[in-house]
Design brief:
By secondary structure, the chain is mostly helical. Helix content is 73%, strand content 0%.
Length: 191
């Protein structure tokens, strides 16, 4: 049964579908987390921890996903929130600290990589800029969440969003331009 069908059946009260949905979504989340951690060279054991945290956030939300696209959007949003929450808890206050600048060109290497590398201040800046992008264009912000935080490549994005890769790449370029301008405007060291 497809994710969207499982979601509908679980919402209708089918406990067996709910159990299958948990297994299917857990596997999707675990693959996303593993992909991120493998790219970053981090310990794969962290994937399980990240997945559990994402799943708990999604399960505790008032409204669950409506379909597969909504599932990936919620999972990417949860990953973003988890990463930003961890950064805030660490109390990032310094800029730079000898780290190379966080680049959106590194995508689909996820934000978790930057978290592991200690680029806390840059992630907080990106999160704030992404909030401003969301107010400007919700679709572009969702694309950034799915690609950067969710780790989805353009082939996966095209499938999930039901759009052409070429169109998504154009939107990605627009989103990056907005974010780079926004981040450069906030950076007192930007020239």
């Amino acid at each position: 049964m497809e994710t969207t069908q499982l979601i509908a059946a679980a919402r209708a009260g089918d406990k067996a579908a709910e159990a299958r949905l948990f297994k299917a979504t857990y596997e999707d989340l675990h693959r996303m987390a593993q992909r991120h951690l493998l790219r970053s060279g981090a310990d794969i054991a962290r994937a399980q921890s990240l997945v559990h945290e994402v799943y708990l956030r999604m399960a505790g939300a008032d409204a669950g996903p409506n379909d597969r696209q909504h599932f990936f959007a919620l999972a990417s949003r949860a990953m973003r929130q988890i990463v930003v929450d961890h950064v805030r808890k660490r109390g990032a206050i310094k800029r730079g600290d000898g780290q190379a600048a966080l680049s959106l060109d590194e995508v689909p290497e996820p934000a978790l990589t930057a978290l592991i590398a200690g680029r806390d201040d840059e992630l907080l800046g990106l999160d704030a800029a992404l909030g401003r992008l969301e107010r400007f264009d919700e679709g572009l912000a969702r694309l950034v969440e799915l690609h950067f935080y969710g780790g989805l490549g353009f082939v996966e994005l095209a499938e999930v969003l039901g759009r052409a890769e070429r169109s998504l790449k154009r939107d990605w370029a627009k989103a990056k331009a907005f974010l780079y301008r926004d981040l450069a405007h906030d950076d007192p060291h930007a020239g």
